[in-house]
Automatic annotation (TrEMBL):
The lineage of its organism: Eukaryota, Metazoa, Ecdysozoa, Arthropoda, Hexapoda. Residues 1-20 form the signal peptide. This is UDP-glucuronosyltransferase. Its EC number is 2.4.1.17. It is a single-pass membrane protein.
Length: 524
């Protein structure tokens, strides 16, 4: 009996170690969609007894957070706006800016924002507090500067992304992706690729690799060393210590990719909860729509108020002629000549709205979280992509028959109206959305359950070093077998050279013998 009791107490102690870990979570991105993607994970980990310190640009307003201490970085939005981030994202291409120049401007704005975040009093206190300790770091790896917290507190870390991970992160954890089979999500390609697309994908991959490691990381290392100390390792080296990578990827929606055991797919609408009642004004508007409602939102980063005049006119003239009510998430009150069937709102509880049975269509910028919410609630879509992964998401939307897409750069009233009516009137799109939704829900574990289990496993195993891909430590020439190929080619060259020399020697001997024989004949 005493042995059983001792065993039970020991087991409880082990469980307590796992359940009462101290976790530092950092999500620097000033983007609401990036923040909400991870909220269920923070809440579930806290519910299971873990103490969480969360650095976030969108603090949760929930009285029941319990074990979650939040460090408010909401001022990041103002810093980003001062850098002109909304103009870059919404109007950049219309003003003739190239993709690379827009990306450079936006990444520079992110770096300035990260510098501001690290200068905040609570963050500086956290970094400088020598008595502070954590058991695990969970960090959004889209902004690599945050990985330096792992070096500061000497803890294993999990990288998380609100969408798929960029190539550099997959490479860092050992998920090596062939650029022809798996093009980067910034490219509007899906397999199988044409020859031109394959050439673009390979070139983009090489250029991006060079840019990240020889331009971006060196500049970000300077920021890290200013705030974490001169002795801090380079981010390129820190990222290779990543224990796990959690990606918001759903194999029902995304392409199948090879990955290691330490890459966890947590996609499929992890952030989606039970629908709550809509605000009265919005609910009354939607309830009164006998023919249905079209919901139009370009997400949290793209500002409808900054759309070009031509695009806005094409959209408004189309919406005016539709026999539906339109609810448009719009950041400005001053829109002229607003049709009677269009209602502007600055904010919408999107998940709850899409769950309303009167919502017949979602016009979206093709952000992943928005598309997940539409699929979950069986709402077909018209996609209007602007940036980043939105273009590849739009192609997936169209290829899986979840809706249609339009090119905002050349959009006309005729094309927009035709596209909207096709998706509304053809039942195949609704059927496809329902089918994809049901398949996404037919899983052994939800994405949240999977993420929680592997998080606690990482804590218990102190970083799960046994799951690390040994290929990470290879030099690039070793990984691509260039040294082996070089040796074999050298050996082959030596062998061929020896054979050639032997043949030449034999040839000389043969000719020498013939010459000797001829000389002897002449002497006779």
């Amino acid at each position: 009996m005493q042995i059983k009791l001792l065993f039970f107490i020991t087991l409880l102690g082990l469980l307590k170690y796992s359940e009462n870990a101290r976790i530092l979570a950092s999500v620097f991105s000033p983007s609401y969609s990036h923040q909400i993607a991870f909220r269920p994970l923070w809440k579930e980990l806290a519910k299971r007894g873990h103490e969480i310190t969360l650095l976030t640009t969108n603090p949760m307003k929930d009285p029941d957070l319990g074990n979650i201490k939040q460090i408010d970085l909401s001022g990041s939005y103002k810093v980003m706006e001062e850098q002109g981030s909304s103009d870059i994202l919404t109007r950049g291409r219309n003003e003739g800016k190239s993709f690379m120049s827009m990306a450079q401007l936006y990444l520079d704005a992110l770096d300035r924002t990260a510098e501001w975040q690290l200068e905040q009093h609570e963050v500086k206190q956290l970094i400088q507090n020598n008595s502070e300790h954590f058991d695990l770091l969970i960090v959004e790896v889209m902004n690599p500067i945050q990985m330096a917290f792992s070096e500061r507190f000497k803890v294993p870390f999990i990288g998380i992304t609100p969408l798929d991970a960029p190539y550099r992160i997959h490479d860092a954890i050992g998920n090596y992706m062939h650029p022809i089979v798996f093009p980067d999500y910034f490219l509007p390609f899906t397999p199988p690729l044409t020859f031109l697309q394959r050439a673009i994908s390979v070139t983009f991959n090489w250029a991006n690799w060079y840019y990240q490691y020889y331009v971006r990381y060196p500049s970000e290392d300077l920021i890290v060393r200013r705030h974490f100390g001169e002795g801090t390792r380079a981010l390129r080296d820190i990222e290779k210590d990543m224990s796990f990578l959690f990606v918001n990827v759903n194999p029902i929606f995304h392409s199948i990719r090879p990955h290691g055991l330490n890459t966890v797919l947590m996609g499929g609408g992890t952030h989606i909860g039970k629908p709550k009642p809509l605000p009265k004004e919005i609910n009354d508007f939607v309830d009164a729509a006998k023919d249905g409602v079209i919901y139009l939102s370009l997400g949290s980063n793209i500002k409808s108020a900054l759309l070009t005049d031509d695009l806005r006119k094409a959209m408004l003239s189309t919406l005016k002629e539709l026999p539906y009510k339109i609810l448009w998430k719009f950041e400005d009150d001053g829109l002229q000549n607003l049709p009677k069937n269009v209602k502007l709102v600055k904010w919408v509880p999107q998940q709850d709205l899409l769950a309303h049975p009167n919502v017949k269509l979602f016009i979206t910028q093709c952000g992943l979280q928005s598309m997940e919410e539409a699929i979950f609630n069986h709402v077909p879509m018209v996609g209007m992509p602007f940036m980043g992964d939105q273009h590849s998401n739009a192609i997936i939307l169209r290829s899986k028959g979840l809706g249609l897409t339009v090119d905002r750069m050349n959009l006309t009233k005729t094309e927009f109206k035709k596209t909207v009516l096709e998706v509304l009137n053809n039942p195949i799109y609704k059927q496809n959305v329902i089918e994809i939704s049901n398949s996404s829900k037919d899983v052994d574990m939800s994405g949240l359950e999977r993420a929680v289990w592997w998080t606690e496993y990482c804590i218990r195993s102190k970083g799960a070093k046994h799951l690390r891909n040994p290929a990470i430590d290879l030099h690039w020439y070793q990984f691509y077998l260039l040294d082996v190929i070089g040796l074999l080619l050298t050996g082959l060259l030596v062998l061929v050279t020896i054979i050639v020399l032997i043949l030449k020697l034999l040839k000389r001997l043969v000719f020498k013998n013939k010459n000797n024989q001829n000389s002897n004949k002449k002497l006779q």
